[in-house]
């Protein structure tokens, strides 16, 4: 990792993942997966949650079906999974630690976008309920020709929408799937969350436990200060 590539740099744009990065929704996906499997009388294979993290919900539904030996249930599991997730998120939308402060500061010095594998209405509803949506210039999801992560499409489209070259854009991600997408798109990457292991960490410029770490707050605050004094 090259932390100096982040801390000494002001990006031309910042693109955030949503689930697990801005919004504390990974637990909702886990609960939705458990409820869906229970509805169909199925049992998840060992370490399924880690393999499913960051996947597009259609891929997750089909993976659940395939690993249960019932591939023909892919569409039904996907629909039930998304239904449970929508209900859980509506009941308890929460931001991740430090996300609100970082977004508010970052919006003062760079255009912001969200690149997510979730449906657009879910992303926008989550961010609106968290009073974050107004900070974002663009929300990019797998539609209109964009393939889901780990393909690079949503990150490339988000950088383009912000008017920035990929190499001048920072991605903020929490999953291996998302890191792969951002890396393939050519963005610099700030990873956040529990240590992901060397294979994922080697693809990011900086990995932090949480967005509320003082170094991240100081980095964003310095960028704001420079803009105000420029």
- Please state the structural category: alpha/beta
**Count of DSSP strands:** 6
As residue ranges, the low-confidence spans are none
- What order do the strands of the largest sheet run in, or round the barrel if closed? 3-2-1-4-5-6
Q: State which percent range the strand residues make up.
A: 5-15%
CATH class of the largest domain: Alpha Beta
Structure annotation, total helices:
11
Query: Whole-number radius of gyration?
Result: 17 Å
Number of domains: 2
* CATH architectural arrangement of the largest domain: 3-Layer(aba) Sandwich
Query: In one word, what is the shape?
Result: globular
Q: What's the overall average pLDDT, rounded? A: 92
Name the helix and strand elements from N-terminus to C-terminus, one letter apiece. Answer: HEHHHHHEHEHEHEHEH
Terminal-residue CA separation? 30 Å
- Helix fraction bin: 40-55%
CATH topology of the largest domain: Rossmann fold
Description of the molecule:
The structure is a single chain. Helix content is 47%, strand content 10%. By secondary structure, it is an alpha/beta fold. Helix 2 (26-39) crosses helix 5, helix 4 packs across helix 5 (74-91) and helix 6 (99-106) packs parallel to helix 11. The model has no long low-confidence stretch (mean pLDDT 92).
List keywords for this structure.
about 230 residues, alpha/beta, Rossmann fold, 2 domains, six-stranded parallel β-sheet, about 45% helix, globular
